[in-house]
Amino acid sequence: MIKAAVAGLGWWGKTLVEAVQGRSEEIRFVAAATGTPTPEAHKFASAQGIALRGGYEELIEDPDVDAVVLATPNSMHVAQIVAAARAGKHVFCEKPLALSKADAETVVAACREAGVILALDYNRRFHPTMAKLREGVQKGVLGEMLHFEGTMTFPNALYLKPDQWRAKRAETPCGGLMPMGVHVIDAAIDLFGEVEEVYCLSLHRAVTIDADDTTSMLFRMKNGMSGYLSTMTATAGSFRFQVYGSEGWVRLNGMTHVAGASSEERRSRLFGECTYQPVKGESETWQAEAYDLSNAALVAFARAAAGGPAFPIPLADMIHGVAVTDAVIRSAASGRSEKVL
Questions:
Q1: pTM for the whole structure
Q2: Residue 292 zone, left/alpha/beta (φ > 0; ψ -120 to 50; rest)
Q3: pLDDT, tens digit, for every residue of 202-246?
């Protein structure tokens, strides 16, 4: 049993705790720290049997803690991961891993040097429907792969206050890129390999905070494919991921992590109606199963930390994902296509 501490008890930090506490034989939360230790945070920690500590340093200095789970502001990840690695703690980090490729390389190097596991919460990789799509692509069921498209939307930015960290451009450049779009970018890397070049148009249309809410991205993959991704943070929630090949296409529909939804819904109902349309023949439509993705990701992390199978997202993919978002941000600023470095 891996004993973990969670840093950050916002709505997503709580969701991660609820995914495994009392539900898993591989991992259990024993401690927590949060930026604002409100009465609500104390109540939640007490109900979950977790000791609420005074700060992050107390978590990584605790000999009873094997691993830390980071649900903290994006800009804090690098320093927190490096500190945890030096303290000999395994790290499960909420995405994004970092805001620049150089920082991503720094944290990966720190974890490798310390011999600790680094896991990143691209939880959609764990859904059986994604596994089925991955297998189909690898076996050539869809023929020559041509193009992918993703759309991820939620209304969360409509309700942000200017003093909240998610409302700050430095924390969430290009609007929905970091909270949502990185899932599609990771899926593209997982299925099709590395990205060569990107172009981004990011706009501020409806939200009252100083942030973009409508972002569109074009991708050229190194294997010759094209891709498109759109994120919007000021409309109703949705998720669509579609891949096209010379023998047909597959479309996965679902939802995003909409604030205010139940913990169970945020964890287990991100995929919905799915369709396979071959070039010749009838289409096939099915309903994706309810599957706790947060539980699956944390259990995979715990097993890796305990010496079991490696966490299924390679470190090289983590670094390349950050390199892609780095290029997206540069493109939005320059107004030109940018190479992924």
A1: 0.96
A2: beta
A3: 999 999 999 999 999 999 999 999 999 999 999 999 999 999 999
Three-class DSSP labels, 99-125: CCHHHHHHHHHHHHHHCCCEEECCHHH
Which CATH homologous superfamily contains domain 2-120?
A: NAD(P)-binding Rossmann-like Domain (3.40.50.720)
Return the CATH architecture of domain 126-295+322-339.
2-Layer Sandwich (3.30)
3-state SS, residue 91: strand
CA–CA gap between residue 231 and residue 174 (Å, rounded): 9
d(CA 266, CA 12): 9
Tokens of 114: 């310390």
Question: What CA dihedral angle connects 186, 102, 77 and 62, to 10 degrees?
Answer: 120
pLDDT in tens, 76-116: 999 999 999 999 999 999 999 999 999 999 999 999 999 99
Where in the chain are the domains?
2-120, 126-295+322-339
Cα angle, residue 73 at apex, residues 171 and 65 outer, rounded to 5°: 155
- 32-75 per-position pLDDT tens digit: 999 988 999 999 999 999 999 999 999 999 999 999 999 999 99
* Distance from C-alpha of 194 to C-alpha of 272, rounded to nearest angstrom: 27
From 75, 71, 38, select the one nearest 168 (Cα to Cα): 75
Contact of 54 with 87, CB cutoff 8 Å: no
Burial class from Cβ neighbours inside 10 Å (0-12, 13-18, 19+) for residue 158 reads: middle
Which residues is 270 bridged to in the sheet?
none
Judged against a pLDDT cut of 90, whether residue 265 lies above it is answered with no
